[in-house]
Design brief:
The protein is α+β, with helices and mostly antiparallel strands. Helix content is 24%, strand content 8%. It is built from 3 helices and 2 strands. Helix 2 (55-64) links the parallel strand 1 (32-36) and strand 2 (106-110). Residues 114-124 have low confidence and may be disordered.
Protein backbone atom coordinates (compact mmCIF):
# COMPACT_ATOMS: atom_id res chain seq x y z
CA UNK A 1 0.00 0.00 0.00
CA UNK A 2 2.69 2.49 0.98
CA UNK A 3 4.62 1.96 -2.26
CA UNK A 4 1.53 2.49 -4.41
CA UNK A 5 0.57 5.59 -2.43
CA UNK A 6 4.13 6.95 -2.76
CA UNK A 7 4.12 6.33 -6.50
CA UNK A 8 0.79 8.09 -7.02
CA UNK A 9 1.92 11.02 -4.86
CA UNK A 10 5.23 11.59 -6.66
CA UNK A 11 4.62 10.67 -10.32
CA UNK A 12 2.72 12.50 -13.01
CA UNK A 13 -0.25 10.21 -13.58
CA UNK A 14 -1.51 12.18 -16.60
CA UNK A 15 1.41 13.35 -18.68
CA UNK A 16 0.86 16.25 -21.03
CA UNK A 17 0.09 15.35 -24.62
CA UNK A 18 -1.80 16.59 -27.66
CA UNK A 19 -5.00 14.69 -26.76
CA UNK A 20 -4.77 15.14 -22.99
CA UNK A 21 -5.76 18.60 -21.87
CA UNK A 22 -3.78 18.77 -18.64
CA UNK A 23 -0.87 20.99 -17.83
CA UNK A 24 1.71 20.40 -15.17
CA UNK A 25 2.07 17.51 -12.79
CA UNK A 26 -1.08 15.56 -11.85
CA UNK A 27 -0.68 13.52 -8.65
CA UNK A 28 -2.95 11.61 -6.28
CA UNK A 29 -2.98 12.13 -2.50
CA UNK A 30 -3.88 9.19 -0.25
CA UNK A 31 -6.16 9.57 2.76
CA UNK A 32 -6.93 6.80 5.29
CA UNK A 33 -9.44 6.32 8.08
CA UNK A 34 -8.15 3.59 10.38
CA UNK A 35 -11.02 2.12 12.41
CA UNK A 36 -9.78 1.29 15.90
CA UNK A 37 -12.31 -1.06 17.44
CA UNK A 38 -12.34 -1.50 21.21
CA UNK A 39 -9.58 -3.87 22.36
CA UNK A 40 -8.14 -4.20 18.84
CA UNK A 41 -4.45 -4.09 18.06
CA UNK A 42 -3.04 -0.60 18.51
CA UNK A 43 -5.63 0.52 21.03
CA UNK A 44 -3.82 2.10 23.95
CA UNK A 45 -0.43 2.16 22.19
CA UNK A 46 1.33 5.53 22.42
CA UNK A 47 1.74 7.55 19.23
CA UNK A 48 5.51 7.52 19.74
CA UNK A 49 5.57 3.70 19.68
CA UNK A 50 6.79 2.43 16.26
CA UNK A 51 4.20 -0.38 16.44
CA UNK A 52 1.55 2.24 15.61
CA UNK A 53 3.02 2.58 12.12
CA UNK A 54 0.86 0.00 10.36
CA UNK A 55 0.36 -0.25 6.61
CA UNK A 56 -2.40 2.37 6.61
CA UNK A 57 -0.24 4.83 8.60
CA UNK A 58 2.64 4.33 6.14
CA UNK A 59 0.39 4.70 3.09
CA UNK A 60 -0.97 7.98 4.48
CA UNK A 61 2.54 9.26 5.24
CA UNK A 62 4.08 8.43 1.86
CA UNK A 63 0.92 9.10 -0.12
CA UNK A 64 0.26 12.49 1.39
CA UNK A 65 3.51 14.34 2.06
CA UNK A 66 4.06 17.63 0.30
CA UNK A 67 6.93 17.35 -2.22
CA UNK A 68 7.85 21.02 -2.00
CA UNK A 69 11.11 20.75 -3.94
CA UNK A 70 9.35 18.64 -6.61
CA UNK A 71 12.05 15.98 -6.85
CA UNK A 72 9.72 13.00 -6.33
CA UNK A 73 11.21 12.04 -2.95
CA UNK A 74 10.43 12.58 0.70
CA UNK A 75 13.64 14.26 1.79
CA UNK A 76 14.94 17.13 3.98
CA UNK A 77 14.82 19.47 0.96
CA UNK A 78 11.03 19.53 1.30
CA UNK A 79 11.19 21.17 4.73
CA UNK A 80 11.46 24.96 4.64
CA UNK A 81 9.86 26.03 7.92
CA UNK A 82 9.08 24.43 11.28
CA UNK A 83 5.39 23.86 10.55
CA UNK A 84 4.78 21.46 13.44
CA UNK A 85 6.52 23.75 15.95
CA UNK A 86 8.77 21.06 17.42
CA UNK A 87 11.82 23.34 17.26
CA UNK A 88 13.40 21.54 14.29
CA UNK A 89 13.04 22.10 10.56
CA UNK A 90 12.99 18.52 9.29
CA UNK A 91 11.21 16.14 6.94
CA UNK A 92 8.44 15.54 9.51
CA UNK A 93 7.21 19.08 8.81
CA UNK A 94 5.91 17.98 5.38
CA UNK A 95 3.81 15.03 6.58
CA UNK A 96 2.96 15.95 10.21
CA UNK A 97 2.12 19.63 10.06
CA UNK A 98 0.25 19.71 13.39
CA UNK A 99 2.88 17.73 15.34
CA UNK A 100 0.58 14.95 16.58
CA UNK A 101 2.90 12.15 15.29
CA UNK A 102 0.28 11.05 12.77
CA UNK A 103 0.38 11.82 9.04
CA UNK A 104 -1.90 14.77 8.29
CA UNK A 105 -4.10 12.63 6.02
CA UNK A 106 -4.41 9.67 8.42
CA UNK A 107 -7.42 9.62 10.67
CA UNK A 108 -8.29 7.27 13.49
CA UNK A 109 -11.88 6.37 14.28
CA UNK A 110 -13.27 4.32 17.12
CA UNK A 111 -16.64 3.34 18.52
CA UNK A 112 -16.74 5.56 21.59
CA UNK A 113 -20.17 7.07 22.21
CA UNK A 114 -18.74 10.60 22.05
CA UNK A 115 -17.45 9.96 18.53
CA UNK A 116 -20.81 8.56 17.41
CA UNK A 117 -22.71 11.41 19.02
CA UNK A 118 -20.53 14.05 17.38
CA UNK A 119 -21.00 12.39 14.01
CA UNK A 120 -24.76 12.39 14.45
CA UNK A 121 -24.87 16.04 15.50
CA UNK A 122 -22.62 17.05 12.61
CA UNK A 123 -24.88 15.36 10.09
CA UNK A 124 -28.03 17.21 11.23
Amino acid sequence: LAALAYYANTRDIRPDGPQIHTQGKQTVKTYWVDVREANSWGTGVARTDPRRRNQLWLAAKYGGFRDLNNNGRLDPGDAYIDENRDGVIDVRDVWDKNGDLLPDNYFEADTRPSTSASGVSASK
